[in-house]
Specification:
By secondary structure, this protein is mostly helical. Helix content is about 75%, strand content about 0%. Helix 1 (about 5-30) crosses helix 2 and helix 4 (about 85-120) crosses helix 10.
């Protein structure tokens, strides 16, 4: 016979599973486009994680006899000028794009949250100096500023993440600062001050949790922008260097010389970039509608 504790654990596990399924169905019904975006992103994430299992050829394996081979049974999406399997390179390229997107978004958001929280809560000369620095960073478009830092740091995966994360900081810092300025006047902050809590403890425990919802929505937009920026940097030769398979570099190698002879070299990498950004934007719009009360009916 099973023990009562074991049966209670099974009941709780079943309730959690039923609750998760119910919430998923509710999300699909309310936000079908957001659910479609989540499916697209899930496909790309699973492809990146299990790339070895779903590809027959390595992304760097060359075959000169199959140079510019058209899509077929051997190469589902065709081959490039060096005879490399385009399908494998796109699947492995998902790892690069997602790694750069996640890394730069997390780093940019973390630094932006710290700067925005400190600037909004402390105020005074610190807020003045910080906001002028943010103005300088926001004076240039995201891609231009990323180009500057990528050219200064050099082409590599780590440097690309850093180069893209720096232009993301001002937007996050401004959003967190504006929320902090509104929250620090609330009664619960005054009560925490009255009982003698330190400023950093109030900021971390009472103000920061109330900025999570807009931060999640902003992070999805930053994630899509980071992937597009990485593709642009790689296209210009300042992003991920060879031999790593990058979607932007695939376009750079094929767009000018082989567009008419082998259009699949441009179509499929471009389609991968478009789909992943489209999926992120759909999911981000759904999260905005779900987390922002002003967007609800």
């Amino acid at each position: 016979m099973s023990s009562p504790s074991y049966e209670s654990e099974l009941v709780r596990a079943g309730a959690r599973a039923e609750g998760l399924f119910g919430r998923s169905v509710h999300f699909v019904r309310l936000y079908p486009l957001g659910a479609a975006g989540a499916v697209i992103m899930t496909v790309f994430v699973l492809a990146a994680v299990f790339a070895e299992l779903i590809t027959a050829n390595g992304p760097l394996a060359t075959n000169a006899s199959r140079s510019l081979a058209a899509p077929g049974a051997d190469y589902w999406l065709g081959a490039d000028v060096m005879g490399r399997d385009l399908y494998s390179r796109i699947v492995y390229g998902a790892r690069i794009s997602l790694a750069v997107g996640i890394g730069s978004t997390v780093l940019g958001c973390l630094l932006g949250v710290v700067i925005g929280l400190a600037s909004g809560y402390l105020g005074g000369w610190f807020d003045l100096v910080t906001q002028r620095i943010m103005d300088i960073l926001q004076a240039l478009p995201l891609l231009v500023l990323a180009l500057v830092f990528a050219a200064a740091l050099g082409p590599s995966l780590q440097n690309t993440i850093i180069a893209i994360s720096i232009p993301l900081i001002p937007t996050v810092a401004r959003v967190i600062r504006s929320n902090t300025l509104a929250l620090r006047e609330q009664a619960f902050v005054e009560a925490a001050n009255a009982i003698g809590m330190s400023e950093w403890r109030i900021a971390a425990r009472h103000i920061l949790p109330n900025t999570v919802a807009p931060l999640i929505v902003l992070a999805t937009a930053q994630f899509a922008a980071a992937i597009l920026t990485e593709a642009s940097l790689s296209f210009l030769g300042l992003g991920i260097p060879e031999p790593h398979p990058s979607w932007g570099r695939m376009l750079s190698e094929s767009a000018a010389e082989y567009m008419r002879r082998a259009p699949w070299l441009v179509i499929f990498p471009g389609l991968a970039i478009s789909l992943v950004v489209f999926g992120i934007n759909l999911l981000g719009d759904a999260l905005r509608d779900m987390l922002d009360p002003r967007q609800r009916g």
